[in-house]
Write a structure and sequence with these properties.
4 helices, single chain, seven-stranded antiparallel sheet
Length: 155
């Protein structure tokens, strides 16, 4: 007997997003994919590093998401960095469009996973960090690590 699939299966994570952006809100969106893209994702061949979201004609699109071509694909294999449509509830979409157009925020993908067999991407509304913000975060993280180390050694 095979075991049932896990609730979520991680495909890829964008580690640079939290370093480069101040994350304000997160959403889980579906993706419109081709068959060879899904097969490639099942092999874990995706890169979210340079990807970002844009609004065109009242719809949300994900650009520069790199999904490697399927190895066993033929002439009908997909283009690796094609523009892909994101699927959201209309209320979430309106809120995202308003944040991006009025406040000048950016839509950044944080991670990609399978939920109950469907490919999903966790996107975030973020504000780009300045260099001094990044340095402050590093100092804060180091101070927290030193404090935890001191507490551990005092026990």
């Amino acid at each position: 007997m095979s075991k049932p699939p896990a609730e979520t299966e991680l495909i890829a994570r964008n580690k640079r997003a939290r370093h480069d952006y101040e994350i304000l809100e997160t959403y889980e969106a579906g993706l419109v994919l081709l068959g060879t893209e899904v097969k490639s994702l099942r092999g874990g061949k995706a890169n979210l590093t340079d990807a970002y979201g844009v609004v065109k004609d009242g719809e949300l699109w994900l650009l520069n998401l790199h999904i490697a071509p399927y190895e066993k694909g033929t002439a009908w294999n997909h283009e690796p960095t094609r523009t892909r449509k994101l699927l959201l509830k209309s209320s979430e979409l309106r809120r995202l469009i308003g944040a991006v157009e009025r406040k000048g925020l950016t839509i950044v993908p944080l991670e990609m996973h399978f939920r109950r067999g469907r490919a999903k991407v966790v996107i975030a509304v973020g504000r780009g960090k300045k260099l001094h913000d990044k340095r402050a975060d590093l100092k804060e993280r180091d101070a927290k690590r030193d404090l935890e180390r001191a507490l551990r050694s005092s026990k």
